Q: What sequence folds into this?
């Protein structure tokens, strides 16, 4: 479901590129140190983005260390360390992965899920006390989402993506707390969450139809052409994110976040749309 | 809606002159500017709204038999006006309830539903409703504008992405050249040797 919120590399400065890698490796290290080795496979860019975004509200410069990493034995890596936003993001990563796996087991009886779920359950208990509410939030909102999906009487993309938008908004705001920017951060998270949900559903559309799985977009489109509609909705959500970001007082990571919202999201959309187009052309060629 | 004659404090069947006079007097009395730093501000605004509604109603229906209590009040235009105010005032729940209570779905209904969705950030709903409103009444400038604005906003957002990597020297030169031409045509000069 994840991994769509990334920067557009070609417009990124080297220093920002290295910084992102630092956060990425830092998050991986937190997962390893605080939870265990197995969870490191679940690391994904959406959660890294969360850490980068939330850390931007912290005035202190991040601390770095250079070290070896077992996955990259030859070259030393830079890690962001002792960072609250990273610790928080790590607990989100654990809880999200756990509930995603539960869903996989329910949906497709996945073996991988059955193997991983008891391990993750143990990890859940290791989430620091101050972030325990994350787990409940995720469980509640995902249940709401699955309930809405199984009802399947919505004709509106906004309505379908609403619970996931709310979830993302809550995850971002609960770290920052009810301060001045609460509403803006909520709005950014809400739109980003909906963006993730829709692009993910759109990306998996053909696969889900083939495997007869639920897909949000398939449930609203009734066979009509949907590309333009998806494009419009995704662009609108992305625009809302970028506009909101503009009004937020950030202490650091401004360039990275600007890049993600003005280039990264659109590039991801381009890529997904292009993939669909190529797939279609390939199919046509085959039939000729 | 209350009986408009009662709101304006006049007799039923009053002439147009009388209605106007009563309206102007009440406006002076309840004008929100007079209550700007006053706890009664909300009350005054509410009252002002009632007065406006009553006056508009009587003016619109002056050629008919006016307002009658026996006839059930089902004027949608009135309700639409309230919905508009609700949306502008961010009272989205009220607006939604009122919209759901209307059975006849004309262009304005679709337009207002679209506006409500837009306020909520529900762009899929906003787009389809604005589109329906616009196609039902293509001559209505308001509907057309709302529909077009939705699209242009996205174009502006896409611009930096579309132009990425285009800041080359050639473009800089043409920009300077254009600026110079413009300055010269106004009688000034931007770059002397050009």
A:
């Amino acid at each position: 479901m994840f991994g769509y919120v990334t920067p557009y590399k070609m417009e990124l400065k080297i220093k920002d590129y290295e910084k992102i890698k630092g956060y990425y490796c830092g998050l991986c290290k937190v997962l390893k140190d605080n939870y265990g080795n197995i969870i490191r496979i679940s690391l994904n860019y959406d959660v890294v983005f969360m850490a980068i975004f939330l850390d931007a509200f912290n005035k202190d410069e991040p601390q770095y260390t250079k070290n070896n990493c077992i996955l990259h034995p030859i070259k030393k890596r830079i890690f962001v360390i002792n960072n609250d936003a990273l610790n928080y993001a790590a607990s989100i990563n654990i809880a999200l992965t756990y509930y995603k796996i539960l869903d996989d087991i329910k949906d497709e009886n996945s073996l991988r899920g059955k193997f991983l779920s008891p391990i993750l359950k143990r990890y859940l208990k290791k989430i620091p006390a101050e972030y325990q509410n994350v787990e409940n939030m995720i469980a509640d909102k995902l249940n709401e989402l699955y309930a809405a999906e199984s009802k399947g009487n919505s004709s509106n993309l906004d309505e379908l993506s609403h619970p996931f938008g709310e979830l993302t908004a809550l995850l971002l705001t609960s770290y920052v707390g009810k301060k001045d920017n609460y509403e803006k951060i909520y709005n950014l998270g809400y739109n980003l969450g909906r963006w993730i949900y829709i692009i993910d559903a759109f990306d998996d559309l053909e696969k889900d139809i083939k495997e007869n799985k639920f897909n949000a977009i398939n449930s609203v489109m009734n066979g009509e052409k949907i590309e333009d509609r998806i494009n419009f909705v995704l662009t609108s959500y992305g625009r809302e994110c970028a506009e909101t970001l503009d009004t937020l007082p950030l202490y650091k990571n401004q360039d990275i976040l600007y890049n993600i919202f003005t280039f990264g999201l659109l590039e991801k959309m381009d890529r997904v749309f292009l993939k669909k187009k190529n797939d279609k052309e390939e199919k046509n060629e085959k039939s000729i | 809606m209350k009986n408009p004659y009662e709101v304006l404090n006049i007799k039923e069947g009053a002439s147009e002159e009388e209605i106007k006079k009563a309206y102007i007097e009440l406006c002076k009395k309840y004008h929100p500017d007079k209550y700007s730093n006053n706890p009664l501000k909300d009350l005054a605004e509410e009252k002002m709204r009632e007065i406006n509604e009553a006056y508009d109603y009587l003016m619109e229906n002056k050629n008919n038999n006016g307002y009658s209590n026996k006839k059930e009040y089902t004027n949608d235009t009135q309700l639409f006006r309230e919905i508009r105010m609700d949306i502008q005032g961010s009272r989205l729940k009220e607006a939604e309830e009122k919209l759901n209570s209307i059975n006849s779905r004309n262009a304005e209904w679709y337009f207002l539903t679209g506006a409500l969705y837009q306020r909520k950030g529900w762009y899929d709903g906003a787009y389809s409703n604005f589109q329906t409103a616009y196609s039902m009444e293509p001559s209505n400038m308001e509907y057309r504008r709302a529909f077009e604005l939705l699209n242009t906003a996205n174009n502006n957002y896409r611009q930096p992405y579309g132009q990425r990597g285009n800041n080359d020297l050639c473009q800089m030169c043409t920009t300077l050249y254009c600026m110079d031409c413009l300055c010269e045509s106004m009688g000034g000069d931007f770059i002397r040797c050009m």
The domain at 2-63 of chain B is CATH 1.10.287.110 (Helix Hairpins). Chain B touches chain A through 18 residues (CB under 8 Å). The two ends of chain B are 71 Å apart (CA to CA). Chain B is about 65% helix and 0% strand.
